[in-house]
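Sequence in, structure out.
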Amino acid sequence: GPPPRGLRLAAPAADAPGGGRAWRTKWAACAIGLAAGSGRRRGHRARHGGAASPRGAVRGIGASEAPSPKRVPRRARRTSLFTAVYLLVMATALLVAPKTAFSLLFDATELPSAWIRVFGMLCALLAWYYHGAALARPDGFLRATVSGRLALAAGLFGLVAVGGGPRGLVPLAMVNALGALTMLRALSCHASEDDSDEDTDEDDSDGDFSYELPDGSGPGDSDSSSTMGW
C-alpha cells in the first residue's frame, strides 16, 4: 500500500535489478526503526513522568512535551483551603487579642501575651502551608515554606523588639530564616536543572529519522535514503 502520511521513501528505480526486493527491504528496515524509536520514547516518558506526545512516538518527530504536573484533587483542595482559612482566623485573633482569644478555651493567666502571640504566628504559618499545598503545582508546599518561614522569622524578631518577647526567640528566628533561604536556593537549582534537561531533550529530538540497510547503504545513497517528517 502507499506509505503513511508524513513518511517519504525514495522508491528504487523500476529498471534497477532486484527493485521489488529492495523496496521490501526498505519497508522492513523502516518498521524496525519505528519500533525502536517507540521503545526509546516510552522509556523517556517513564523516566521523566511525561505524557505521550500526540505528534508521534518516534524520537525526533516534533518537539517533546514537558511533563505535566499532577493536579491536587478538587475535594482535597477545598478541604485544604478551608483549613487554611480556619487557622488564619484563629491566628489573627491570637495576634490581635491574645488574652481574650486564648481565654475562650484555656486559662489566659498561665501564659504571657508574648507566648500566646507566638502560638498565633505558628497557626498563621500552618495556614499558609495548607494554602501552598492546595496550589496546582507540585512544589506549592515547598515554596510556601520559604515565604512562610521568612515571615515567621520577621514576626519573631518584631516580637522581641517591640512586643516584650523573650530573647530566646532570636535564635529561632535566625534558624527559620536560614532554613527558608536554603530551601529557596534548592528550588532555584532544581528549576535550573529542569530547564537544562528540557534544552537537552529538544536538542536530541531535532533532525530526521534515518536508518541503514543491511547492505550498508544509508541516508547518503539516493536510492535508499529514508526521511520521516511532519
